[in-house]
Amino acid sequence: MASEPAFKEKITLPEGVKPSYQNGILTVSGEKGEVSREFLHPKVKVSLDKDDEGNEAILLTAQSYTLREKKIVRTFRTHMRNMFKGVTEGHEYKLKVCSGHFPMNVSVKGSTLEVKNFFG
Prior knowledge:
This protein is α+β, with helices and mostly antiparallel strands. The protein is 19% helix and 39% strand.
């Protein structure tokens, strides 16, 4: 007889996010796009499930609940929440160019970043 897992955690998906989990790769899609990431660990099992209200959810289970498994489960949870945020709200990265001692000129032409007079 199989023993009951020592730890279970359900992550409810936000509205508009569609999950898919195959061969250790979680793919989530939303209005802003699709993101895939590998979630494989021998002591933590990832599966798709439903929450209490019948919404899509991701179930993380571990047979033992030691500090190591807690860290892995929390890391998985955080990465998944970041994926959900990315496909619903999007992601924007702003680059700040700083030149302290050596002068340089930076310009954007179309989709190309051009750096002139860079020495160092």
